[in-house]
Write a structure and sequence with these properties.
103 residues, mainly alpha
């Protein structure tokens, strides 16, 4: 059974509506993805700023260092065995606390 031109036009119009709906759905999903990515970047920026501020409050002298000098100092400090041990212990303590909270 062949369809009339009017039936084909109605089908075409219905399909056009479906296409527009799917495009809007895709746009909403893209917007949501961008929102979450932006949120992750904002959280990271906030974390970096607050940790940098903590370093400056503990050792205000670092404000005078250039970026290169600061990174060299940080690499030196974090290469010290005592610091490596302290960082490792802090991470282990944090992970144990996370596990307790998760249970």
């Amino acid at each position: 059974m062949s369809k009339t031109i009017e039936q084909l036009q109605q089908e075409y119009a219905a399909n056009e509506v479906k296409i527009r709906q799917e495009k809007h759905k895709l746009q909403r999903l893209n917007n949501r993805a961008q929102y979450y990515e932006k949120g992750d970047r904002q959280k990271r920026a906030h974390r970096l700023i607050t940790r940098g501020a903590a370093i400056e409050s503990v050792a205000p002298e670092v404000k005078e260092l250039s970026e290169t000098e600061f990174y060299a100092l940080a690499e030196y400090i974090f290469s010290l065995p005592e610091v490596k041990t302290a960082v490792s212990m802090a991470v282990t303590k944090h992970e144990k606390a996370q596990q307790r909270d998760g249970e």
